[in-house]
Model the fold of this input.
Amino acid sequence: MAGNSIGKLFRLTTFGESHGVAIGGVIDGCPAGITIDLEAIQQEMDRRKPGQSAIVTQRKEPDTVEFYSGIFEGVTTGTPIGFVIKNANQKSKDYSHIKDSFRPSHADYTYYKKFGDVRDYRGGGRSSARETACRVVAGAIAKQALQGISIHAFVSGVGPLKLEKPYTDIDFSKTESNIVRCPDEKMATEMEAYIKQIRKEGDTVGGIVSCVIKGVPIGIGEPVFDRLHAELGKAMLSINAVKGFQYGSGFEGAEMKGSQHNDLFNADGTTQTNLSGGIQGGISNGMDIYFDVAFKPVATIMQDQPSIDKEGKDVVMQGKGRHDPCVVPRAVPIVEAMSAIVLLDYYLQNRASKM
Amino acid sequence: MAGNSIGKLFRLTTFGESHGVAIGGVIDGCPAGITIDLEAIQQEMDRRKPGQSAIVTQRKEPDTVEFYSGIFEGVTTGTPIGFVIKNANQKSKDYSHIKDSFRPSHADYTYYKKFGDVRDYRGGGRSSARETACRVVAGAIAKQALQGISIHAFVSGVGPLKLEKPYTDIDFSKTESNIVRCPDEKMATEMEAYIKQIRKEGDTVGGIVSCVIKGVPIGIGEPVFDRLHAELGKAMLSINAVKGFQYGSGFEGAEMKGSQHNDLFNADGTTQTNLSGGIQGGISNGMDIYFDVAFKPVATIMQDQPSIDKEGKDVVMQGKGRHDPCVVPRAVPIVEAMSAIVLLDYYLQNRASKM
Amino acid sequence: MAGNSIGKLFRLTTFGESHGVAIGGVIDGCPAGITIDLEAIQQEMDRRKPGQSAIVTQRKEPDTVEFYSGIFEGVTTGTPIGFVIKNANQKSKDYSHIKDSFRPSHADYTYYKKFGDVRDYRGGGRSSARETACRVVAGAIAKQALQGISIHAFVSGVGPLKLEKPYTDIDFSKTESNIVRCPDEKMATEMEAYIKQIRKEGDTVGGIVSCVIKGVPIGIGEPVFDRLHAELGKAMLSINAVKGFQYGSGFEGAEMKGSQHNDLFNADGTTQTNLSGGIQGGISNGMDIYFDVAFKPVATIMQDQPSIDKEGKDVVMQGKGRHDPCVVPRAVPIVEAMSAIVLLDYYLQNRASKM
Amino acid sequence: MAGNSIGKLFRLTTFGESHGVAIGGVIDGCPAGITIDLEAIQQEMDRRKPGQSAIVTQRKEPDTVEFYSGIFEGVTTGTPIGFVIKNANQKSKDYSHIKDSFRPSHADYTYYKKFGDVRDYRGGGRSSARETACRVVAGAIAKQALQGISIHAFVSGVGPLKLEKPYTDIDFSKTESNIVRCPDEKMATEMEAYIKQIRKEGDTVGGIVSCVIKGVPIGIGEPVFDRLHAELGKAMLSINAVKGFQYGSGFEGAEMKGSQHNDLFNADGTTQTNLSGGIQGGISNGMDIYFDVAFKPVATIMQDQPSIDKEGKDVVMQGKGRHDPCVVPRAVPIVEAMSAIVLLDYYLQNRASKM
Done:
């Protein structure tokens, strides 16, 4: 597994298992001279951390980031930023029941087949979404570097409930006003009730996180294989439980005609419509970038499920422990973090486009 | 722009503009010992080439591949495979009208802003989908290496027309029986009529290409950032005009409950359902991999459109020349090619997973 | 600075400043299934650590490695190995005199010009050779993976003193029998006396580390730009204070005739001589790989030196504190570590050479 | 073999066998806006090409470069530059005698063992130095981008003959005044006579190419693993027949004391001496960069040599055909090209060092 890095110039490499000693990472290529607001980083961590509200897993993790290098007197020095988040809550015993068995729709079976017999089965080990905490650290730093660019992720779908509003009508300042992170009060209340109902059933439900990025300069993105939206898509699809990505007109665009879909220019190079989603030919055109990310329901449910063990024998997976009934409220800061990481990386790459 | 490569071990780098001397590429890391069927490669090229039927652009390009290295006495030698496709049809004059103007929803404007004044405007230059011919070359070679794996892309949507069938009910042998490349005869006929109607209107329409991959061994894929579906998603999103990607349950999965979505195991490790789409935790589980790719309508339409020039002055983009009314029939071999490239690359990467 | 990684499939990324909280790294792509001997790793660390003998710096650092991930029940799991080495000895005050001044032939000035005003000046910060401790960790793990390959580095030169013996006459079991790490008893004694003399003068001296690698299978190495010896050379040249690298016949080979230099074959594919140094066309041929690495004298001397500050004003750099009079005894395990890292990476790459 | 690329932002990928249809490559990441002097490129090619003088191989190759993309109206567009050099002289029959046998100290045996039975044996196939022509193309373009930086390679050693002059005493304008490319008239004459003598003996001889780079801005180079001199070293060691690399004080530096070796500052940040070789901590300090590259004698000699075939049976390798009695005169432009490629790549990387 050498897939633990993302980025070319601004590059994050992460390590760590859900119930090991610690998780952490190295941010290489962070430009020198960025004044770091440590509190703002921790706030991002708090948006992702477990136990933050009644509708997320109750695992207790303070998720305090310790920085070991790369920041001196509050400013980035251009050297790699090493950081560590200790795992506070390591109830390894809780997981003895999955030592030799495979939970349905988790990565237990595929890790076992790929890497062999010795496997950190505790809480999914490396395949746990706990790893995403490290992404939030790097994303928070990238955000601080990206002056003038604002990234607004929010929950736009929970199960069958969907926020059917054009993004231009949304007041992003409302996103953090509720525990679902849906910037529409009425919908947020419905979603919260729905998630609580699902939790009561011992079940889980999927959802959609949407994201709008404002203020991206024109010219960010590399053509052909590394189109900006292709890398954004990969970054989102690399988040646990993600099943789909669309940007601009997305899947609906596939139903449209060219005469409807084309974004006509204004004299200043902006466009009258923005079905392109802020990217043309893989390069930002200065308009808002927006996209949707689909999350499947969390595989861990509080219901008994039949499964198999290493020998292929029948076992029963008992529904017990802590879990997220719906992952999207905690996924909002992760989507923002991945956006920031990709944007900063491409922002730096773009400096090499002209002589 | 250093984004002209894809792959880590099996790596394709492409070059070339739509109306330059030639396009081509280098395939590096192709393992030694693969017997190459040149005719099969050309057949793939013919599936993508312009002028192949009444519903695609009538540009005439034989798209004959010349191989310059890496294949000796019909077998790959492990050295890089250099190849070139000469541009037969270089009517540069056709493009003088866009020399200083920007076509709506094309990459003219963003290339100009990113790379500066000197720009090969002819037919979109580098941003033209002509570049995808090189992907088909590499994909055809990858397919020949991937013994036992079969890749079946097909058109499942054209504008509002959709093939609403579970993929398991589809007879892939029918895909090439019609010029739309929809493996359902009735739907294919409707789609063909619709595309012809659109062409008559001087318009274009989007569509959906779906793909099913069978026979992928268990264990292919790298966890965390390089999940197999994340790289597949990036590969698809890097194709011209793509706006969305979903795999397995996709966006519908976001509406489901965990108790519905979980794929329960059979005793042999296969699963009773396959909402996971053949990938769990970023690693193939041996079940079919399937996904959808959304294409927006081609931006070049045969209708006059208002636009701007370099000075921001109003111009009229005249609808003239050759164009694809709907890109998806020709996109089918490209989706297959990108799948093959990603799979072979990850297949080779997987050889390093255990000592 | 995004240059903190080495390796393609087996990949080490390091972080940390000399007097920060900690140094550490991530080893990504370590294959699953390697049983890890933690004591053997610590032994390698002890060979590199300061304070180990009378002829090295007396800075006190236990250099205890803490592993945070990637090893479970004593075996690698294929997931990234995160590790940290706390900096015990952080006498930051010692360095206030170089806060605004540049030490001659150190990296103070170039870091300042490259990264700007904020710079961790304490003990050289990131440019300190302290960083090499992380290389030894990764190298020790790579060594354990490389069953059947043995790597023997040793001191072959200290200032004017040189071990003029063909490597085939050397008894590598003697290397660790003296504090210089020269496997010739008589020469080791002379070298030790010479280093002590240099230390007394408050001066430093350069030296040569040679390395012989036995048991490398045939076929390791990638042709053209990534030739095995090219990557070995880069790995060695990336060690602090290294000024030169030669392998096989090296610079002497430049004086020879082809009729002398060619290694004639034996019937089994081995060669009668080995001026090639075990590598032909960038690929191992199964013979011993051997090379020399030249280290310049450490720049920190215990003598006053004129220098400049940020404003270009004259300052005097006082010779004080702790330093290594000669770096090569401690460089021996680093050269071995870098060899092991490169070899394991290329060993894994070679798995993709044939279908 | 996926080692056919060099560079991170300015990236060259090459392909082609000595006696295949053509060699060529793709230069990706060349910044837009460089006015290209095609004649200057061809002049560099002519400095490397065979048949240029009485002391090099008499193979006839015009080595005319055809550019297929990336340059429009004489200016780089930022898109990949694809180029091809046709192989004019493909006397494949000449090589039937090595179809199943291995030439001593060539790469025939290692390629066979690494890649298997099917191998382009003609003239060494991919392992031939013919591939370096592509490096000269990319280097010539990089040179044109690197305004203000001048790169001066020259022959400083041929067999036992050595130019023992400090580089500061050399008049680089003399390099091209003789066919050896030694900028000292007297030494050049001796070297030429010596090479002719060697050729008469049917033998070959090694040599040294030295290189001085002037005008490199301060701050170029990435610390730790990607130190500027480490990448330069790798680039040089990747050239056919190279056995050693040293920069600045080099191997002699290993004999020196710190008090002699340290380069004291002038008030303007320049240094009074330059034993550092223009690089400190892996980063350029604005002083001249200089280094030496050792080439072994060419393995093809015009004398009969005993060897083996695939079955390990004795064969006689007959000395016949065309060969270079000494490779260094033709290596001069290659060393310059590799220098330019590395410098431009690092120059672009440096743009990301600060925010």
